[in-house]
UniProtKB/TrEMBL annotation:
It comes from the Bacteria. It holds the Pfam family DUF6036. Residues 9-152 form the DUF6036 domain. This is DUF6036 domain-containing protein. It comes from Enhygromyxa salina.
Amino acid sequence: MKRAQLEHLIRACSTIAEDDEIIIIGSQSILGQFPDAPEELLISNEADVYPRNFPERAELVDGSIGELSPFHQTFGYYAQGVGEQTATLPQQWQQRLIPVANARTRGATGWCLEIHDLVVSKYAANREKDREFVRAVIRHSLVERETLDQRLRQTELDPRLRSLILGLVEQDFRDAA
């Protein structure tokens, strides 16, 4: 997904949900902080979103412009309506959101995760596609180890998952060096 496509989704989600603030919590939230992110980080053709002021309308978004919808078939990308609880995020993540608002969003604001918060959520999900995404982020030097460690300490995690993640972070930074 390219930045212009994310802006289109923000505009469409805002119209559907009648909410001019949309939270983007999936991998494509990287486009907020890094509009020209490396291609390997832009593979996904969907953005995980929910209306900030009316989160219950995420299902409406999903039903209108979600996977296999006419929107998806027409444009080749789509919005997946999710809930805030979909991602495991550090404390105060909402204070670090990156706004995407311009003429192409027609007055709506897409609020994207800050990169370290996004990476924490990907480590917590621990799916193979998330692991690949995180390794690419580290290879491209888009995160700082110290900040990532701090955000992990600010994240409520099961102790076993925390231990696993700490090992993965160590390995991923070592492999990227």
